[in-house]
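The protein record now logged underneath.
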Amino acid sequence: MALGLAEAWPRECTVHDGPVREQLAHAWEECTSIVAFLATGATVRLVAPLLSGKQSDPAVVCVDEAGRYAVALLGGHEAGANRLAERVSEVLGAQAVVTTATDSVGFPGLDMMGFKVGNPERLAGVSRAMLDGALVAWKSDDQWPVPALPPNVGDHPAAPHAVVITDRCVRSPQASDLDVAASGALVLHPPSLVLGIGASRGVAKGEIAALVDQVLADARLAAESVRCIATADIKADEAGLVEFGEERGWPILTYSAAQLAAIEVPHPSEVVREAVGTPSVSEAAALLAARSRGREARLIVPKTVSARATVAVARLVPRGRLAVVGLGPGAADLRTPRATTELRRAAIVVGLDQYVDQIRHLLRPGTRVVASGLGAEEERARTAVELARQGNAVALIGSGDAGVYAMASPALEFASGDLDIHMVPGVTAALAASALLGAPLGHDHAYISLSDLHTPWHAIERRLYAAAESDLVVCLYNPRSTRRTHQLPEALAILGKHRPPDTPVGIVRNAFRDAQRIIRTTLSALDPDDVDMNTVVIVGSSSTREVNGRMVTPRGYQWKQ
């Protein structure tokens, strides 16, 4: 089993041998995660003397002798043992055993939201209060797109427990300092600060560190909220700066003089321009990095200078998160893991009521659902975008792939550059139908929707003629409804002008769902009454044929000749 994991993850694993106690001791020093093929009791006794703290201990997952269970034993959240247990289970066919309380009941872990915990000693107490249903105040300097929170966590000013999201340096627990009526607040630091650093050649790491620490302390800003360092590209190899970044664990982003010169700053310097080609390094770099991907940002600490270094601080403004999620054709095992992850990442889910019903059981407690009926696509797209603009984490769902005749197009038309947008692909209706029929999409093919609600019929006719003349396999979406009955016969007539009557045709209704129905027929024998809006029709090309009861469009490989 160990060798199986190493083969599955070739660049991640080392397999240890020798006495087990020595193996564990060695791995404890060298590895970030450990999979122990031992009983949990034996593993506990072996690792107990090695424990130092949850911030530094590796993740430990135990796998039993039969490979039936992968138990997240140590470091479930902090070190990633919960996710590791799931990954091990995927490879070994085992069942992941996760006992972290928040994971067990579906609550988001307060230490798993992308924020750094400022006072870890309070994490357990506040998490316990959240789990027990006690009121927990939620206070944030800005609106961050966090997952759904249970109803007892929110705007409860007088609550005995609190969570504060701030990039301020909070060294004391006084309620007045936190603006929360509680003394037991858990402080979470968001990744909101960018350090712009300019430096003279040969600057020492210690000088940069002292200046940065002074700037952060004077402004009462938390070092835990620093997301990166930004500077000029000519400083990319500056030893003192590189060493400082590595020591603090802050990545260094670099920009050309032309990029920096284009940023308006409050304190430009002609001396700096003459030296490096831009009137500002620290202020311009901080703003440029904070504004990456179109974000809004403010310079909150202007440049501060030491003998050989300059530091400025910019704060990025958080923005909403919109995930456009394709759920697949309806079967749970054809919904991608990423789609499930995004649903659990969202605080608000927007979608067609029947699709919401498919995934409601996956949502975290406290998730707000905005469901509507057929025909309200534009309304759903506008609603999802507006809710995301308010700073929320929103998932807009659709069947199949959200980018194929679904919600992605209208949502992206309404969305502006002030959102973080994540597209999650799904198995389309055409792919699901094709899999049930055989391999009809094995060569060039076209998707055409027969719905003339958004596209004039004369435009659809032109596309049908083009596909027919090009001898493409044609996959017909929205082929027929109770009111739209003439389109399918007309489409088949157009296709029939360019291919023989015995051309194979596949009809698939409710692919991979209850009431699934598959009909294999021909172009001349197709009965329109077998088709409705839940159906996909695939019309073969001149080369499509039936092979052992399956619809196949040959690829035409040269070696077959």
In short: The chain is about 30% helix and 25% strand. The longest helix spans residues 205-218. Residues 312 and 378 are 44 Å apart (CA to CA). Confidence is low (pLDDT under 50) at residues 172-182.
